[in-house]
Amino acid sequence: MSLSRSTSHGSSSCSSVIKALRWLLKSAEVGCLQVVHSVLIGTFLNQKVPRDRKQAPPLPLWALVQWERRVLMSNCTVLEIILLGTSLLMAWGSLRFSDAQRLDLQKIIYHDGTMRGVIWRSKTAVSGMPLAVAAEGFLSKGSHNWLWKFLTVLDTVLAKSGLSDVDFLLPLMDEDGPVYPLQPMDYATALFYLRKFLGCPWSQRPDPLQHLKLNFTLHSLKATLLSWGPQLHEKVTPEQRLSQGHHSDPNSSLDTYSRDVVWTSLTYQRKMIQEVQGGWRPAIAQHRGRMVTFYSFVGIPKGLPPHGISAMKQKFMANYPSELIHADLFPSTRLVSLVHDQLSKKVWKWVPWKYRISLTRFMIGPSPCAKGKVQWLTEIQRDGGFKQLCMRYQVGKCQNPNCFTMHDPFNEVDSVETLPVHDVDPVQDFAPPIDSFTPGRLPQPEQTNAVGYGAASPSCCEYSRLKLRDDDGPKALRSPDHLSGLPNLTPWELQRVQESFMMLSRCVEVLTLVFQAGLRDDSGAFASRVTAQYPQKLAQLFANLVAPLLDTSALDLQWSSLDALMPTKHLSDYPFAQIDGGGAFSHPDWSQDNRQEHDWFKTLRTSWMNRIISERLDKILLAHVASGNPSPPFSMEILTPFKDDLEKFLEAHGHPPDWSVRQHQPIHLHILHSLQKIMHDVDFTLLPSLLEGVRTGFSTAIPPSGIFPPKERADIEPDPLSAHLSNWQSAEEDLPLTRELVQEEIDKGWVFAYKGSLEEAQQEYPAGVAIGKLGVARSDSRAPRLVVDSSVCGLNGRCIIPERSTLPTAKEVLRSYPLRQCQRNLMGFSLDVKAAHKRIVLHPDECGLVGFSLEGQLFFYRVTPFGAVFSAFWWARLGGLLLRIFHHLIWLSHAGFLYVDDFLFFMEANMMPLSATLLCIFCQLLDIPISWKKTAMHSSIDYIGWKFNFNAGIVTIPIEKILKLRGYIEHLVSQPRTTRKSLEKLIGLAMWITQLFPLMRIWIHYWYHDLYTIPATHFSIDAGTWPRIHQYLTPTLTFHTAPLGSAIPISGKLIAVRHQAVSSLADLTSLHIKTENRIWLRIINPNSSKRKLRPDSLRILKLFDHWLMGVSPSRPMRAKPYWNGIAAADACASGSYCQIGGFIRHHSGVQFWLSEKFSHADFDILSIHLDPNMQRSIASFETLAQIALVWLVATSFPGFRIPICVKSLSDNTGAESVSNKLFTTTHPLCLFVEILTCLASTTGIELDVSHIPGADNVIADDLSRWDFSTPIPHDFQPSERIHLSLNQLFRCSPHPTLHPPDSKLLWKLPHPLAM
């Protein structure tokens, strides 16, 4: 009775004691124990509280698929084949381990994709039972399957053993395979291998079941398929489930004459295969009994990826290298996941105590301390009675006055009831055990109601400075500079440091609890809380005032309706993406309405899709991509039918298939040319040029593509061709690596060593010979690669490229998101072409133009190398053609992009694997060199440096980019005198980041000013040279020849002579120069790399640094909703005056307008210096008018910050451009764009400005020319006018306004200038 009423967590229980005594009575015949069979004692065996019986959990589907895939791999070892094959056979056959070890191997029959056998003895069938397993599994088609491979290897093992009668399935194994002579493996060893292979040790990915393996037993194999059956409801019958589980059936007499009676279980298994291959996934089954809770098959909540904890550990160790992280100190997976989930959602909830455990406790299940191993403070004596420790009492769910919490102070404590604490480990256990408190310091009964004294005595030996003495004393583990531990400590020494710190922190915690002790009321709450409450009547008055503002309508949201709640992007909704990398006749968003393209590849796509679906090749591709395998996903056996379909398609269109390949490149250009002709592609000169060998544009013109905009040729005279027999430092500093890289390119046929001299090469290549400088490009994210500098030898400057390619930015991806009329989940797919530029062969006559030298040996390229301008142009054309073909192959609603050699596609998640398989098969058939290891297919894709999450609809800047930019900023702030290269790095990275943060881009114009402002330097000339100085200068005062004996640089610009400014040759003759001394000239050297940052640039550097410290690395991919109305603005200027006008009109009919006139003096007051003839700054005033429109819209929503986009009209192309791009370096226009971005940031309102011809912009034009005396044009009302001063337009800081305006206040609003 004492045990039945006990609340102790001891290991003994009432029922177990009774059952033990009854067993002893029966076995030992102890007559005095007959009383245990009495009715009174038996009543204690009646369980009043139902308890769940512990059962082995079934395996996740993921584990069976991974095992099956491993068995099918060619590098699978004999050990893995035997163990994994046995596990799969037990799972498919629903066998216990004892059943598998009683399988007669001589009676196994393998026929028609089925294995049948007999278990000669079972737990439920003494005379044995039949067994059958379907061989195909989830991944196999045809005769080659996991079961055939397993039986083949097992047959080899049996033949090698020489035994004729083996009646067990799983033999004892070691690392080399079976142990001979064969003997059955024991249960413990088999369980060890099961849990080991649950982690897929052959895979390089993190183990998703790392902390859950101990839940699984060998009986989990039997439970797996049986647990899936009930989830299919009527699709499987009870008879099939009974047969699969080998359970007895009332119709057993029928089975007696059915021989092996296994066909029903085979039907069950194949039904499972059919459902899984059709997309069904079994849910995680309910787990029974006391074990670690399963939240998904990987055991962690959604939101924290399997590799997340590993990354957090690495980051922690990088920041705190001296700290210990091991299973005893690290929090459990569940605890980390819960805290991560709450942190990401910004919602804080109570974390149950059962999850506040270490990783060790988590892996071994609920801590045995709950059963008596270690006891904490559980019971205190107070007021003559006992109080129980209660966590429900702490969170307000328990009102029992006989309960207390760990947060209660230790006042009025009479005694403490605990069990012995001899088994306490202060390092492994988080909560302070009772022996970590000082018993003599606990309050005694004679003390008053308040704690009068608290003391703690932490061990301070590891903090002692005496250890720092240089003598024979104990080794110091810490120092004042290394309080977390000295470098190079052993793990044991680090543990001592950690324990010392833990004891100190616990003592501080105890003293804090003592300090927090205070007077409490009868409910246990602090008495001072009463004074912090609102009186009830006052609270009711507040509630009455707030009630009208609250919506009382209830709206219950269901998770299943989540997709329907997301806004749909309709066919006509802005924005529209324009650039995808495929040229003028290609567009990225293929979800738009009224597409003009013809479906040229419909028949080919239909036949390919049918094959992909019937053979489930999309599943193979998904698995291949997930594994990161660098080899192609499909074998030639799989590709052959697709090749046949392609040949039939080409022949049907009158193009005989030609699979020949041009030398030195892998792509089937003839097939590609036929497809280009079928789809009537406009770049008809591309494929003939690729087949012949492309031109560089040096001596022979490159034929234009007709898909890219024409490129303007610079008027600068290019440098002549030259030969450089030395290389850049990056190639010279590691010659073995450079030689290795050159040899790799020779082996691939891209480069050949020239046997002759430079003169002989010039004779062999009359078109020209250029020897560039070789370099080695190194990167943290990719292997080193060769780069030939074709600019230093004059080649790039002399190659005429007729067009400039267009590349998509991250904004184009955002403009395409989401797909129109789509509310389903999206998935992305990315492809990377390996060494793209080097897949294009040069014309043999022009190979001499692309050469380099290494250790006295000349080398020339056969292909277009990385670093030449024509290489990028030719690949842009070929890549653009591939993108256009890919668009037509997919055809379904999707979006696609090409940035240099990186393809990105996204579409509905259920169709993306099929379309991706289509593209991969096409690439393999045409031998397009894809880097399969980099291929990605997921809802989250890394592309051109950004991380796009197509499900969540967010794009993220990698934190490494932010830290890199902050590093550039820190360097330049500390060294304002810098170099051009440092400024270019800063500007390039800042321009890249501000693609998606355009409101910050305008401030970069200060850095551009410093980049192009070259500091002048003083040079001296002899006095005798001064009379002839004009002979060395051009009319623009640029030196075309250096005076004899001077260091003046060629192309240097003369700006001053002896501190007298000059701007023309005429100024030189008017100078008064004494010629007896040397004459100092101030000259700007355009080739100088020195730069100096102005105070304004330093201010912007600090602004960017402050912004980067607090900016969210993620931003939504969805565009801001467009304001439902029309808006237009205009400006005019004449002399020293300008005037702006504009209006906004909502669809409801509400409208506002403005017309303001400003003078030149008004701008001077604000330190905005303009040309006296204000007409020359008309683009600035047009931009000011657009700023005023934003103010008008903001006035429509007083007191709110509305994230919307306003469609506006302007008849000035300059204002239209800068209002959309939010960037210019032109002064003073850049100052007005700064104001526009500040206003957009303050109000949340952005502009999308379109051009309107001046003749049509009548309303805004008339408002900008109104003389303020005649009637207001176009029937606008005075009450609709918004007055905006120039000071208000340029001061974007918000200020309070009163709405409605006629409201009465007992105080005055603060003046805007005072804020």
Automatic annotation (TrEMBL):
InterPro entries documented for this protein: DNA/RNA_pol_sf (IPR043502), Hepadnavirus_pol/RT (IPR052055)
UniProt name for this protein: C3H1-type domain-containing protein
Organism ancestry: Eukaryota, Sar, Alveolata, Dinophyceae, Suessiales
TM ranges: 76-95
Keywords, comma-separated and alphabetical: Membrane, Transmembrane, Transmembrane helix
Record keyword ATP-binding present: no
Superkingdom, taxonomy of origin: Eukaryota
Organism: Cladocopium goreaui
